[in-house]
């Protein structure tokens, strides 16, 4: 019998070296030159824009009545990233030559708000732009002093209308970033703004205002249109207003007549895990009253244990017992007790993000609660939109405190779902509606299926929904299969295939790891009760003890419950380990159902670009079309993340499948290695697959506000490698980190030796330098490869200046007998770490006081050999490695095993 066994810490020797070469054997790609005539329309566009900019600047100065010092803000949309990584060195030149200091960066740093901090230098920008506009249409601008103007897509003054964003009443204003160039004026306007808002409160012009702890936003309630306009017209330190209203939950359509709940969820006598449920309050109805322990209300009702709608109560019941709720048992022991944090009075309304963040912090610090559920979302995100203030505050909170928040990806609007089924259109058919850029109907665009704020949060876990409803006798209504993402469930909003400011992102500037949701759980289907989940009702009428509902709101607490079970079993593991183990246990359904949608997308692009069918295109044309289309696998990952966690794999190891955990730190600009010894008995296998290894890396980030590319300032990644030397992990780390290490000289080819001699004798040309570096890298990868070469790292860092980074990654490798022989039964897990440059002052200080960064690496090793009467992989792994059983509640483990027996 394959018994349930506790997970193991891997405590093998490790080594590190302070080395991280961030260069590449390739040069920067030059900005594409064009026929000089092709710049004509570009010049005309910039000419019109710059005239408007000057007019808008005069108007804005005339509007000022409250602030004596003006801070002129211009928005420049670029065709290339704003950085010093490109040939034009825009970051340095815009400040040093044009007096433009960046105060907010969006659209992966292709749209930048600049403060004009040197009027004299800005006249040079004016002069060069005019030179470009007036230049001869027959002469290329490349190589001229004004060539940098070809990198501009558009330029405009930041007006009051841009700032107020047509928001009203309850809203938040983002602040621009305060830096050394704008500090004096910024602080003066901040003081005036505080006094102005305090005065408005005294005369009841606004209900209240709050500044967040990090000074990134001001939240205002009850502001009139005139107040908002006045603020936007006067305060240059305001970047943009946003309305944060919860996406309303449609009142339940289906009631199930029943005279009693016939359900009792009881406290677990030896479980101390309490989870916080952020919702519209929890009513302690009979089935859950024993497990709802207390609450905090940030609304006007003053009672966290009251609710006018059952949304929060349903969420609480699923967080308490998880999937066991659907087993039909009427007496359940809770996995978690519930603490109610009431953030809404009803099921919609204004989301007070500052109070929510303060409430989470307070509850964590006073009650010790570490797991939270947030099934309430704001509006959906546009494609490639920067992280929201809400997500930023939650990421900062998770970085600073020992917490993990499970966040719903959000649902499509209920009324839209109904309307889409009533109007026949190919775009409305599952799964076409998820992803079809450029195609829309009167009521739908695929952008409407993007995740909702704050589901883009990176330090927390976002949960999407499968169409499964735990009722095998029923079928989904709108979705094709219960194992597929539900029709209403929302997808990742990042799409690196889509143009930004009229240009395409370089493949180097995208990141395959930036997708949401992280996980999926069953959430039922809409629109009829056969597809929905049967959940708790209030029982107010004597017949509404149960109701039917569906949504990511229900999937999210089911995922949270799994985390609670994991914490119950292993109370001392870090929450990043919880995240890593959950992701590492997950698996996803096939993506084949999306292939027709991808084919249709290619066909549409083929006709649009080449006026021919895809099959009639040349191979080069087909490649060009394919590059512009997300693959079926990519779309599925953007909908389902890593998939659905497997409870057994999450909680337990087995005799033939071991879950290992590494909780450690790595310093900045270091490489680190950890050795993993492979049991000798696996060499007796004649099977092509001996062992399957999958690993997931997770770590917390300190987010950078107002800098889209650098929002995650921390790069960390890992790889599998050959242990080319034994018993010296630090030396091995040095070899892995340095392609010029002396270790490789014995393996140099004649071509490398020839180029190396020439390098020292007479020097190399740029192309020869690149070739030598490429040859050395290729040799290094062959030597270190577990197979013929080293696979790509879990995340590519290059170019670090322009690459948006992820803080969770996954890799897997299958070892055959010959692979184990090649590595001498010793697999290397290599990790590396670097931090972004050009960080704002507060993050530079963070880097100074944070020399090393924590991470969790979850590793699952499965024996796939066909050896007869083989020994226990679990035991053999412990015999040849330094292991420690993860501190666990063996009573829970034994109890679970007895229940299984």
TrEMBL record:
Give the species. Answer: Sphingobacterium phlebotomi
Its protein name is: S8 family peptidase
Q: Which InterPro entries match?
A: Peptidase_S8/S53_dom, Peptidase_S8/S53_dom_sf, Peptidase_S8_subtilisin-like, Y4bN_pept_dom
Q: Which GO terms describe its biological process?
A: proteolysis
User: Which Pfam family would be a valid example here?
Assistant: Peptidase_S8
Entry's Gene Ontology molecular function annotations: serine-type endopeptidase activity
Lineage, highest ranks first: Bacteria, Pseudomonadati, Bacteroidota, Sphingobacteriia, Sphingobacteriales
- Describe the location of the Peptidase S8/S53 domain by residue ranges: 272-592
Q: Which residues are the active-site ones? A: 279, 311, 553
Q: Which UniProt keywords apply?
A: Hydrolase, Protease, Serine protease
Return the Gene3D superfamilies for the record.
Peptidase S8/S53 domain (3.40.50.200)
Report the sequence similarity comment from the record: Belongs to the peptidase S8 family.
